[in-house]
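Slide 14.
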Amino acid sequence: MNNKFGNIELPDFVLVDFFRDNLVIVNDIVGPPNTQVVAASQSMPADTTISPAIKKTSLPVPKKWFLGDNQKHIVILVNDIESVYLRDEWLQFLSNILGACKLNLGDVAIVNHANNSMLFADFQQQLAPKHFILFDVATQQIQLPFTMPFYQLQQFGSTQFLLAPSLALMLGNTDAVKMEKSRLWLSLKKMFNI
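Slide 15: predicted structure.
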């Protein structure tokens, strides 16, 4: 058979998205150490006997609760009741502003507070943020012991914070929107030493 696509290897996160609800992790396969084989759950009938060399474990696929890879430990907390992570137009705006800061989605972890009402202590433990940007989320909502005005930088422990209004106020071309964008940009320039 002639395959015009060749051998294409997909990244792990794409495979997880394809088979989010139908994965079975098979451990202890004879072969190199630390290997795992992933198979679709429908490929093996429920009454199949598994040889002692192969042990079947049905592990839940972990739900990724943030968007991005958090490579530079920058947490962006948004509040969007209409989306899992955030609306497409908000993501486009954030991608543009991150690009202007010489960052990308791989550098950050975008968390939707509407779907993940975690506390700052949880963020510290799981994402170790160096920078924390809150859009339309008050510091009290994540149990921080301080308040701050919009666009002011605040250091707390090893994390620098920036509080901003909703991303919805950053969309459009009115004078008020331009003012919000410029205030955000000035704060981000200070935060990332641009």
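Speaker note: Residues 12-57 form one domain.
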